[in-house]
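hi! just following up on the protien thing from before. the input was this:
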Amino acid sequence: MHRSDLRCSYCEDTVGRKIGGTPMKTTKATRQQRLLLGLTATIGMQAGAYAASAPDVPDQVKVPAGERLVFRAHASGAQIYVCQQGADGKSRWTLKAPEAQLHDRKGAVVGHHYAGPTWKHNDGSEVTGKGSAKVDAPDPDSIPWLLVTATGHSGVGVFAQVTSIQRIHTKGGQAPAAASCDSSKLGTEAKIPYTADYYFYAPAK
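and the predicted 3d structure came back as:
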C-alpha cells in the first residue's frame, strides 16, 4: 500500500468542508453551542488565573468556604452622599449610591459600579448584593472593607454566578464632616472620590 493511499484527500478540519467525502453542515444551534462553550472556557481560564491571587483579609470579611475567586477589578469613582434630616430631627450625610468604573489589571474599563449596589461587566452580566459584614479600613480616612452577599443576577457572563464580593484596599470615600450638613444644605449631594479593589467569588466546581 502506498503512503499516499493512507491519506484522505477529503479530510479537512475546517467546519463546513468535506470530511471523509461527506459534507458537514454547521447549524445555528451548533454555532450557539460553540459560543456558549467558548464563553464557559473563557470564564474558567479567568477563574484559574485569579485563583492564586485571593487576598489575605480579616476573618470578618472572608468569603464562605467552598467559594473560589473568579474576577478582580479596581474601582475608581465616587461615593455619593446626600444631606438629609434623620428621624431624630438631626441632619446628617447619608450614602445615596456609589458611582465608579471598574478596571482590569491593565487599566482598561471592564465594567461599572452603581446604585443597588450593582456591579455590571462589559459582557452584559451583572450582580446586585447586600452588605453582610464590614471592618474598618487600615486608613481611618477611608470607607470600610466589606463582604457583600449576592442577591440578584442578570445577563450571561463573568458575574452571572457570583455569590460573594469583597471590597478592600479602600482609599477615600468617607462622608463629609457632619457639621457641614445643616438645614441650609438639606437635599444637597456630595461626591467624595474613592478607590477600592473588588474581588468576586463563585461556588467552586
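The radius of gyration is 25 Å.
The helical segments are 28-51.
cheers
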